[in-house]
Fold 3-phosphoshikimate 1-carboxyvinyltransferase.
Amino acid sequence: MSGHGQAQPMTARRAGPLTGRAEVPGDKSISHRALILGALAVGETKISGLLEGQDVLDTAKAMRAFGAEVIHHGPGSWSVHGVGVGGFAEPAEVIDCGNSGTGVRLIMGCMATSPITATFTGDASLRKRPMGRVTDPLALFGAKAYGRKGGRLPMTVVGAASPVPVRYATPVPSAQVKSAVLLAGLNAPGQTVVIEREATRDHSERMLVGFGAELTVEDGAEGRVITLTGQPELKAQTVAVPRDPSSAAFPVCAALVVEGSEIFVPGVSQNLTRNGLYLTLVEMGADIAFENPREEGGEPVADLRVRFGPLKGIEVPPERAPSMIDEYPILSVVAACAEGRTVMRGVKELRVKESDRIDAMARGLEACGVRVEEDEDTLIVHGMGAGGVPGGATCKTHIDHRIAMSFLVLGMAAQKPVSVDDGSPIATSFPAFLPLMARLGADVSDL
Ligand code: S3P
C-alpha cells in the first residue's frame, strides 16, 4: 500500500443512478493535527472520528516514536498521552511517513526546536517531494537538515538546542509550511510570526487555540499575520474530528455526473478555507442543497443533498485555489462532464502534490477522449456534456489517492469503463471508498 506494496488495478463502469447516504471518513488534516497536538499536550487527549487511513496511522506511529503514548480504543476512537511542549524524545528508528506530505512536514516542524535528531523517509511519491519549503524556515529557528539533492527525503533533521523565534512570510500558499513554522514556534521563546499572503486551511490555528496556546490572527496589508507566543503549556483536549470535505468531494461529484443520481452526504465542512470546490460546483449549476448548517468538532458543517443535472464550464477564480487545492483532480472530471470549457488558473502547486496532478489529470483525461490544455500554472478542460466522455482507458495514478478516485468517478459516468493502474493509494485517505461507492450503486471493482 501507498507505494510500498503491490499495484492494485481497479475499474469503474457505468451502472444505474447513485442513491442513498454517504458517510465519509474523518478529516485528514484535522486527524494529523489532533495526534500531533495531543502528543505535545500535557494529559490525555481523547479523539473520536479519527481518520484511520494509512497517512494518519503513520503519524500515530511517529508520535509513539517521539515518546507519546497513542492508544487505539475502537473505530475512530483514540487517546494520546502527551509529553508536553519540548518533551519529545529522540526516536530510535527512522520515521517513515509513507505517502504523507502533511505528516512529514508537520512532524519536522514540531521536533525542530528540540535538542534531538530524527531521520525521515517515505514512499516513492513522498521521496520526490520538496522539503526545502519547510527546512528553510526551520533553519531560521536554528535547526539543520541534511537530505538528498533538491531537499528530498530521506532527510535527517537536527533540532535546535537553543531555538530563537522567527518571523516568516510563506513564499508559497501552503498550510503545511505555515503549520510547520507554528509547531516549531511552540518550543521557541518569545513570539513566532507567520505571514501568509493568501489564507490557507486554518486548522492548526484553530486547534492550537483549542489546546490553550496564545495565538492571534490579524489581516494586514502583508496578508494574514499569525502570532504565536512560544513555550505554552498545551492542555489535553477532547477532539471530535469532523468529516473530510476533500473525501466528500468524490461521492458528491460522482452524484453530479452519474445520470439520475440523488445522494445525501451528512456533516460536510463549510470552513471557508476548505469549501472552494463547493462554491465552484454551485457556479457550474450543480444542484446541491446545504441543509441543517451547524457546528461540529469546532468546524461549521452542513448536510449536502446532491442531485444529477446539467453543468456548465466556468473560469475558476485563481484566488480560490488554496481553499480547494486538493479538489482540482475531481473538479477536472466534473469539468469533462460539463458543457463548455472549465479554466483552472493559478494551480502550479498541483505539480508538487502526491503526484504532478496537472500532468496526471491531463494525460488520463486525454486517454479517455477529453481535450485538455495545460501550462505550468493552468489546466483547461473542454467539457463533453453529461454522458459525453468516451472513457475506455487505463489511467496512471502515480501513487496518488486523489488521482485514483477521480478517474474511478469518471468511469462511473463515461461511455466505456475507466481503469486505474493502481488504486491501492486510496487507502491513505479513504479506505472505505470502494464499499461506500458500491453501496450508493456504483460498479467499481478491484479485480
Ligand atoms: C494540508 C495542506 C495542503 C493539502 C494537503 C493537506 C494540510 O498542502 O494539499 O492535502 O493538512 O496542511 P500544502 O500545504 O502543500 O498546500
Summary: Residues 28-230 form a domain with the UDP-n-acetylglucosamine1-carboxyvinyl-transferase; Chain fold (CATH 3.65.10.10).
